[in-house]
Design goal:
The chain has 98 residues and is mainly α. The chain has helices at 19-24, 27-37, 50-66. The chain has 3 helices and no strands.
Length: 98
Amino acid sequence: MGRRAPRADSPAPTASPVAAPLKAITGRDLLKHIEVLASDEFEGRSPWHQGRTLTVAYIKEQFTRLGLASGDPDGTYLQKVPMIGVTSTPKAFVQCRR
């Protein structure tokens, strides 16, 4: 079965709220953002480190620049989640000999 053509009296489809921001993102821009977020300055984006603070600020700035609305009920781009830290203790090692 084929798709039906919209009726003449049907309302025009509305644009998605993310349509314009999606058009504003190019491959070159995406690469720039990846380079920024992966830079040494952002310290791996670990929780409880300056890299996390920089990452959150950078992403918030980019979302605001694109005109994206907040997805959180409190009007921010942040979702509060409990965080725990895990420290591993390696039990194995590799030794190479010539």
